[in-house]
């Protein structure tokens, strides 16, 4: 493997800032240890989890949405009540809420949290999942609907006079003025996806475009792709959000031991459909999942610390690629993505609450120290040059040793 140059020169593509996102978990069930939660929400756990995110200085938390999940608007409101600083991101499917009602709900959340609301629009990657709530539009039309939805959200937040609309998907008369946001400005809107339709909407309309963790050259190509669409539309580049599931321990060798322990448990969980019911473990058909599985099939290891074995074990279900290593190695790997242009980094673990604590104590400060160093000096620090991950023979040897031990245990029937 060719080792990149990690000198003091800050790459031209680097973001000057980074903010961190987690995903809020409502109960202690995990892919490592699925447990039955009678009502879905363990309130004490949820409060403890959200308090941990606040204490560990995460910037945002995503409130996910699925046909069999808790409602993301309600959980986002709970996060706003339980915290002073965390920005709740409402995951919202346009087919579930009329756009003017969504604008009202989001503006209400924004006022209650004094300007902290963000929305992530999910056009829908799985036909089966969309059908569960009565949405039978094909994917290209789902993205077209998202484009119309974004326009109506912003108009509902900013129009000073009543307006009517007759579009491809929505029609109404004499609406408004709508309920205002806290600042009077539109709430940030995020979308994601890997189809051409997703890139077109993301480049021409979104404030944030989200990716799952992919190898650096491929991600940089995708960032260039969405930025080119934004430029052609005369818009600023959207902020880039990238998601990982880091596996961290005190040393690189210990992290690899942990990773191979995790992968056996994750694989067993998905094989037994113990975390999701089998009907909700839909076959990966969206482009993001297909890409994740293709990367996993080509190699388990990429760049400094990206590990795709977790994506293979989950069948490409959602964001599942890992960064493996010590806090220093994982922080250096995150900075590689910041250098590629990401400025929103979502890190959530497989051992959810414990990992949120560990990331906050040991990983986030290292990344923030480097960003502060760059701002103060105009030069890159030494973290990336000193913690090389796969670019180091010792790191590769630690990964190989952990893999051999795991294979031996599996062969022995342990």
From TrEMBL:
Keyword Repressor found: no
InterPro entries, sorted: Luciferase-like_dom, Luciferase-like_sf, SsuD_RutA_monooxygenase
One annotated GO molecular function: monooxygenase activity
Residue stretches making up the Luciferase-like domain: 40-343
Keywords attached to this entry: Flavoprotein, FMN, Monooxygenase, Oxidoreductase
The organism's place on the tree of life at top rank: Bacteria
Name of this chain's protein: Alkanesulfonate monooxygenase
């Amino acid at each position: 493997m060719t080792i990149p140059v990690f000198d003091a020169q800050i790459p031209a593509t680097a973001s000057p800032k980074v903010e961190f996102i987690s995903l809020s978990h409502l109960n202690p069930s995990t892919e490592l240890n699925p447990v039955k939660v009678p009502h879905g929400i363990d309130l004490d756990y949820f409060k403890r989890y959200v308090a941990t995110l606040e204490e560990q200085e995460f910037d945002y938390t995503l409130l996910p949405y699925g046909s069999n999940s808790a409602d993301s608007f309600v959980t986002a409101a709970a996060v706003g009540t339980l915290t002073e600083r965390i920005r709740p991101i409402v995951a919202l499917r346009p087919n579930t809420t009329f756009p003017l009602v969504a604008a009202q709900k989001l503006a209400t959340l924004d006022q209650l949290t004094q300007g902290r609301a963000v929305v992530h629009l999910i056009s829908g990657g799985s036909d089966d999942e969309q059908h569960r709530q009565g949405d039978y539009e094909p994917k290209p039309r789902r993205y077209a609907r998202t484009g119309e939805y974004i326009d109506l959200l912003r108009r509902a937040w900013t129009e000073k006079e009543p307006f009517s609309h007759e579009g491809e998907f929505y029609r109404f008369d004499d609406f408004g003025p709508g309920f205002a946001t806290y600042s009077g400005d539109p709430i940030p809107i995020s979308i994601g996806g890997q189809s051409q339709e997703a890139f077109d909407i993301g480049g021409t309309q979104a404030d944030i475009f989200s990716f799952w963790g992919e190898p650096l050259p491929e991600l940089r190509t995708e960032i260039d792709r969405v930025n080119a669409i934004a430029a052609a539309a005369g818009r600023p580049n959207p902020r880039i959000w990238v998601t990982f599931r880091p596996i961290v321990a005190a040393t690189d060798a210990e992290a690899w031991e942990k990773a191979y322990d995790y992968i056996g448990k994750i694989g067993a969980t998905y094989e037994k459909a113990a975390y999701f019911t089998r009907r909700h473990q839909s076959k990966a058909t969206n482009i993001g999942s297909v890409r994740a599985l293709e990367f996993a099939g080509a190699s388990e290891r990429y760049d400094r610390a990206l590990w795709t074995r977790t994506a293979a074990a989950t069948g490409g279900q959602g964001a599942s690629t890992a960064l493996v290593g010590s806090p220093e190695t994982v922080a250096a790997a995150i900075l590689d993505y910041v250098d590629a242009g990401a400025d929103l980094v979502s890190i959530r673990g497989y051992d959810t609450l414990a990992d949120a604590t560990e990331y906050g104590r040991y990983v986030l400060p290292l990344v923030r120290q480097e960003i502060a160093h760059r701002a103060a000096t105009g030069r890159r620090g030494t973290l990336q040059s000193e913690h090389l991950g796969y670019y180091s023979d010792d790191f590769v040897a630690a990964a190989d040793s952990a893999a051999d031990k795991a294979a031996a245990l599996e062969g022995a029937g342990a």
